[in-house]
Structure formats: structure tokens, C-alpha cells
What does this fold into?
Amino acid sequence: MIPRVLSIAGTDPTGGAGLHADLKAIAAAGGYGMGVVSSLVVQNTQGVQQVHTPEPEFLRAQLKAVSDDVVIDAVKIGMLADETSTQVVVEWLDEVLFSTHESEVPIIVDPVMVASSGDALADSVSHELLHRASIITPNLDELALLLHQPPAKNPDDMVKQAQELAQSTGSLVLAKGGHLPGKDKGNFLVGTSSVIAHAKSPQITTTASHGTGCSLSSALACRIANGDSLPDAVQWSTAWVREALEFGENLQVGHGNGPLDHFHRLRRQAQFSLQVPHSTISSPSRRQAVVPAAGPFTQQLWELAGDALDRFSQESIVPALMQGTLNAEQFHFYVEQDDYYLQVYSSVLARLSSLAPHEEERKMWAKAVTQTITVEQEMHREFPLPNIVEPSPLTLAYTDFLRAEVASDYVVGVAAILPCFWLYAQLSEYLPEEIKDDHPYKLWIETYRDEEFLCATAQALEVMEHQLTHASNAQREQARNAFVRACSLEADFFTQALLIDPR
Ligand SMILES: Nc1ncnc2c1ncn2[C@@H]1O[C@H](COP(=O)(O)OP(=O)(O)O)[C@@H](O)[C@H]1O
Ligand SMILES: Cc1ncc(COP(=O)(O)O)c(N)n1
It folds into this structure.
């Protein structure tokens, strides 16, 4: 079922806040958005210029038009400019929504009073409305205003105030930490006596903050209507808003505080590289290899890795992994897939060892098998993994590809396995200079400095160079193709975790 979510809110002709933001947020959260206009607001990213609030009958008629026709799975209420508008909504909730809908419809009230530009949008939010909310989503200042107290200065005080509001209204309160000092801008879902959920939102420095609160509460309404548990819905919407905030400036909308990129995640998912044919290499790599090529043949391969390396370093999990901001669920997925991959990878290395024409090469591949098994055992010690990992379609495509290439020809097999050494070795280039102790992936990324692995990569490159020097032209062509395909799969392998909806 696709949740049908109604937003009752004011407008923003620049599309970043109010009803416009709500509809985008609902769509991004997987729902069908509907909108009843409470006030027409002349505003842009720099501020509010005028507010026109239609007659109460007009608001009533809009609400009736929706509820006469559509089953509503959740309601998000934003700006209500005056007491009369609030009264109309309260009556509609009591007389229509609560009486005609069999199951309880979640009502998320965002007590909008002041726009992020500092302009007033409503004088107050009536307790009559707050009492009817399932969840109220005030920011720091709104929470303080509702309680007639000064704004909280730290998360603990914010939670205490949220608890007070929950007690006086009987509703849950999502206290939003966007304006808290400190590095975490996360949110707390609070009941009368306890914290039900906390979702972290590590600070992003951006001017694209217009409509953050509207978007968060709409996404929350939609995820609850979707059937998510409350903690899951809070996690999902907080992580999604943060991502939309992170990429908002790219939209280049307006000269003030611009909007979030509500559809950044969908855009990223749509760009997933499996759609790009492997043969379209547009930018030969000019970057320095951490482990240098072993001669002209491997140098040519390095240049062919250009596109994949760009994706690997910019669009995969690598940047977030290095910064420590990668979502835990995405990291876990990556580690699981890596575990499956390594099992197949070690069997492919073993096969190369059995095919190698010289004793030295046989020993080298066999040593790589042992190293891989050791890494895998360590992974199992450090990170709890299920006994049987289900490979994703992409992981399976990569591992099946390696199995097929190694079965066709030794030289081609070496070319297919090479990106796993070479691109992986490149990871040490992206390591932060200092990995702080509170970096959540410290243990993991420190292994990227492993000298033994860099040494094994140099040896694999020697083998490749030697084999290509003595190969036929047909074999070289096949080997190049296998290498480019494997580079692309390696980059995809590091990108696929981002396709998961993080919470
Ligand atoms: N600078 C930021 N870095 C990370 N997350 C942020 C930032 N600003 C806002 N958020 C997220 O957006 C949510 C809503 O923002 P907030 O400013 O608190 O609300 P409002 O837009 O109503 O003033 C925050 O609770 C937080 O989850
Ligand atoms: C119609 C309308 N509703 C709400 C806001 C608040 O926006 P923000 O989420 O940035 O506080 C706004 N600027 N306009």
C-alpha cells in the first residue's frame, strides 16, 4: 500500500518550504502526497514578504473535498496563520477524520511559528490542536515558545522540555536538534516519561536549510503511515533529511537559505552505474597509483581504470566511510557482502595458483589465499556476521564473472582479479591523516594501510606485466576487457550499499 498523506500547510513559491516541501518529502519517503493550502505566502529563500489567508470556508471546503473522496493514511499539519484557521482544522479532525476513519490516523503537528529567515508565520499554536496530535515536532525555539521558557542549551534540557510538552498535551514530542549547539543535530522522540527514540544527525555546514523542519515532519508522517515502527520512522526521516541537506547547495536555488535536495537519494540511485556500458571509458586515469604499474602494459590498464576510479573515490561509500559518516546499516551490508565476496575470491586465487605456469607465481597466489582467509577470520571476530550471507545480485554478478574469467584463461583470470588488488590498494590514498579514536570505522579503515597487502598488489602487477608481455594480441584484448569490466564491478561493489535506504 502506498500511504496517502495529507499536508495542511502554507505555500512557498520557490518550492523549498511549506506545502511544496511537504509534497516532495512525502514522495521521497514513498508516499502519495495531497495538499490543502492554509495560507498563501509570498516568500523566497531570503524571507517572507506577505501572507494571505483565505476565508475559513475555503479551508473547510478544501478539507472536505479531500476527505469526501480519499482515504487518508496520515495528516501533517504545518502553518496555520490564525486562530480561525486552527479552529476549522480542529473541527474537521473531530467531525470528519476521527469519525469516518476506522483506524487511528497519525496526526503530525509541526508547530510552525517562525520561518528559518526569522519572519513570523503564526503567533502561536493552540493547545486544542496540540492535544489532537499523535506527534508534535517543534524545533528548539518553538519548543521553548510553547512552554514560555528560554530555549534549551543542550540535548538533556531539550529532552526535559519535550517531556513537559508531552505531559501537558498528551502527545508524543519529536524534539528537533537542528539549532542545538554542538556537533550532533539529531532528534529525540519523547513521551511523558521516557525517550522513545534518538536519531543522530552529525552536523553539516550548509546554507541549504530552508524547509528542513517541514520536510522532516512530512517524511515522518509518511513513514509512520507506511507501517514503520516509531523508532524506525524517526531514524529514516532523520537520515533522509540529513542527506537531502548535504546535497541541497548543488541545486543552486535562490540567494538566501536555499532548499534541501529532496530527491537526492533517488537521483543517486538512478545513476547507479550498472546502467553504463562498461566499454564507454571517458576519462583515462591521470592520477597517481598508490602501487605503481609494473611496466607499459599495466600502465595502460591503469589508464583504463579512470572512470571506475572516479566513481570509486567520489560516488561510492568510500568518502563517507573515511569520514566516519557512513550509515551503520549501509556499512553492515557492505561488510556482509564483502564476506561473501572474499570466500569466492579466495577460491579464484586458489584456481590461479593451480594454473600458474611458474612455481613463484603459484606460491604468490597461494599466499594471497592464506592472507584472504586470515582477513576473513578477523572480520568474523570483529564484526558479527551471519553464517550464511546471501549475496546481492551485484555481488553475485561480480563473483560469477571472476569464476568465469578464471576458467577461460590464466592471463585473462589475472586481469579480472587485478582490480580487487589495485583499486583496493588505492583506498589508502583517501585515508584521513589522523583517524580519531571515536571514528566508528577506525578498526576497519586502518587495515587499508596494510603493508602486506600493498606488497601482494605489487607482485600481482609484476605477474600481469610479465604475462601480458608474452601474451598473444587476442589474449591482451581479452585481458583488457576483463580488467575494465572488473574495475567497473569493483566500483559498483563499493557503491551498492548506498542503494539501501539508510535509517
Ligand atoms: N546543520 C545540520 N546538520 C545536520 N542535520 C541537520 C542540520 N540542520 C538541521 N538538521 C536536521 O534537520 C532537522 C530539522 O531542522 P531544525 O533546524 O531543527 O528544524 P526547523 O527547520 O523546523 O527549524 C534537525 O532536527 C536535524 O535532524
Ligand atoms: C509556508 C511555510 N511553512 C513553514 C515554513 C518554515 O520553514 P522551515 O522548515 O525552514 O522552518 C516556511 N518558511 N513557510
